[in-house]
Amino acid sequence: MTQAVQTYAYLRPSAVHESTAGRSLALETSGGATPQGAAANPRFFSGFLTSPAAAAAALLAVADVAAARYHQPQLRASLDPVVTADGDRLRFESFSGCCGVHARLDVLADGLDGGDVHHGTTNVDVNNPLRESLGRLGAGDPLHLAVGPEALEVTTLDGPLVEKKVPLPDRWLRGFAETQVITAGFDLRAELPAAEAVRLLRSLPRSGGRSTPAGWFVPAGRTLRPTSRPVPGAVCLPGPERLVALQRVLRHALALRVYGPARATAPTASAWEVVLPGMRLTLTLSPDASRGFSGEGGVLTALAADACAGDADLVAALLAWDPRIDPAELAEQAGIGVERVRAALARLGTAGQIGYDPADAAYFHRALPYDAGRAEAHNPRLRAARALVAAGAVRLAGERAVVTVDDHVQHVRTGPDGILGCTCLWWAKYRGGRGPCKHVLAVGLARAGQPEGVR
Predict the structure, then answer these.
(1) 37: helix, coil or strand?
(2) Please, which domain of life does this record's source organism belong to (predicted)?
(3) What distance in Å separates the CA atoms of residue 199 and residue 250, rounded to the nearest whole number?
(4) Max alpha carbon distance in the chain (Å)?
(5) Nearest CA-CA partner of 381 in 336, 323, 443
(6) Which residues contact 140 (CB under 8 A, 6 or more apart)?
(7) Residues 324, 358: contact at Cβ < 8 Å?
């Protein structure tokens, strides 16, 4: 697997400090993006947490996911969470090493007190001594939170005091792109009060050598009832042991919300959100423990749409770490249609610049140090599709097309719903559930390259 190296450079380790003034949680930042440009160690917030114990437990849950591999668990991950400050909240995000679980903690305005939230995105240091300190925090005393160094003048001539170099699989990077496409299709499927939420989550398996098959739950009054098949209204829980990180916050839970597609006939991704005082902790699970988000293919169409690259640049210039992105408002500002804005947002998502929050039913802006070109370069289906077009393997015939690959031929045709289908084994297996196959992508690229009147 191709790997990049992510370098985290911190002025000092993150820590919980004790003093006569009380306790302070200092989360140190690495290189990140701000409205003023790149910053080595940006400072995003200095104030108090209104629910210290709940916040400590939720931060540990995000760190648990960053350190976990739910598929092939013997291979340990070690990735520092990403934090985005967007003026009214702090969002902490991480992916599991296998890329099958995305964790996000939203510390909302009600969870913060006594300081302004700035704007930007960076990584935060989560080390073992910090985890031990967070695990010992009680609920009695106030807790001051600083995201970023209290004083930048402590830098030395030798550079950062703490540096980590972490091998980072490209499939992990692509997970940010895929989750925003998948969760944008989610609706709120169920909401459970605290007691029912705790009962349900504590009944789930916590670990095990082999992944538990996907289960289905259907809303029944104030709880969820298991069902053996995907009946109408059911939500999927794929690999329930992957929700183990939520166990940390159950004693602080106010409610549980479950998000998923309106109708599913096969195992599908879902999002499980625990509502906390002034916060929300959400775990989004891929359709199977052995199936990382990076291979879902939801962004392939956006990556292949070279025509929307200019729109993406235009829309990107209008973003400002907005906590809620309104496509209609962006369309008015950019002078283009709403559908073009949505396509541009999807393309920006391939660089990790766009996330989606099912609780707000809205996109949000972040700025990760990745680019769409990197995502495209390491996507085998898109590379293969471009190679097919370059080799002249695509022959268009109205609504049908023929793609010749070596000594066999695949037929691509447009269905009644306007979606392209293919005769290849990939399409027969997934039916578009993991994005388009290379033949469908190649046909789309070939049609996009034709003169307007010939398509």
Answers:
(1) strand
(2) Bacteria
(3) 10
(4) 78
(5) 443
(6) none
(7) no
Helix runs in 335-408, H state only: 338-349, 372-377, 380-390
| Secondary element (H or E) of residue 327 | helix 327-334
Higher per-residue confidence, 276 vs 176: 276
Q: Per-residue pLDDT tens for 145-183?
A: 999 986 544 334 445 567 777 665 566 677 887 888 889
Q: Which token pair is 441?
A: 């992508």
SS3 214: coil
d(CA 327, CA 305): 19
Paired strand residues for 130: none
Residues written for the chain: 455
DSSP state string for 43-82: --EEEEESSHHHHHHHHHHHHHHHT--SSSTTS----PPE
The radius of gyration of the chain's CA atoms, rounded to the nearest angstrom, is 23
How many angstroms separate the Cα of 224 from the Cα of each of 196, 372, 391? 9, 40, 53
Kindly indicate the confidence band of residue 289, based on its pLDDT and cuts at 50, 70 and 90. confident
